[in-house]
Amino acid sequence: MAEPIRIIVDKCVGCGLCIKVCAYDAVSLVDKMAVLNERCTVCGACVSACKYDAIVIERRPFKGQDVESYSGICIFAENRHGALSSVVYEIIGAARELKVSLDKKISAILLGEKVREMADELISYGVDEVWMMEDSAIGDFNEEIQADLVAKILLDKKPEIFLGGGTIIGRSLLPRVAARILTGLTADCTELSIDGDNKLLKQTRPAFGGNIMATILCDSHRPQMATVRHKVMKAAEPLEGPHEGQILELSYPVLKPRVEVLEFVPEEMDTVNLADADFIVSGGRGLKDPKNFSLIEGLAKAIGGAVGASRAAVDAGWIPYSHQVGQTGKTVNPTIYVACGISGAIQHLAGMKSSDIIVAINNDPSAPIFNVAHYGIVGSLFDVVPEMAKQIKG
What's the confidence (pLDDT) of residue 243? Predict the structure, then answer.
């Protein structure tokens, strides 16, 4: 069994309620006493059904984990091609807010080749200690190598909180790390705070398609791990004046990866990066044909913005996944977001509803997108979008 579960003999009256709720036929009555068999999955249904508190599950933390020995807030300083990822500044901002409530130092794990300047930059933003490993064998990014190194550093340094970005790298790397060090992970958090009573990290994220917000606590395992959804939290600003931080140069053996990165080929785009854009023009199913994305690209170019897309357009193969906005794509927070031919499914809204100004263009006046739009244009995007581009250029 995954967890110890037992029947309290003195309390069981043989009522059979546990048998009725068990979906696995794992409970039977023997001499008017409930008995569990090997089919039990420890789902807990019988515990909830028992009116006499005769069934208990004894949950224990993993062996050897002493939560009291962990202290501090640590972030993963994601970097590519010689620069910190923009999400790192948002994580630092979140960590600085947590520090006010927790009163513990902020550290950062920085891995890669020629990363020393980034370590100095992290300190200028308020990081108290940078755990740096600079080695050419690490390369730019190799998930297998970095997962191994990050896990070793966390086990040695023992921070009580570890935060990463909800990026392609973060979503891939941190689950591997969590599995290695036997702790939990809350993905794509939109809010982080410290519980005033027990000082646990309150990790809030959308659930059930964004219909509810779930707050998750990790009371028995350390570190408490979470990824932060990009473009949701306010980015930190550099501290005024010098900040006394420390750079610790670490040395661990770098394993030989099973996958070798031969070359990185960046996507050729005429428009700016989606995550960093102040203006975004997105297209959806209403475009009807992939060639019609040229209208979206034309308007985006006219306003100096980026091209986005709904999941329907990406799933249809009209545009690469890197342009997808929504719960399963990128979360964006531009000054202006123009939605063209997008109905406004809740999964898409989860990725763009925090935009300062939302302009919706749709020929269906009852489309849900109009419920969140600041400005709505009911009409054919094939007429409206070219005219908007023409007016802007003029």
Answer: 81
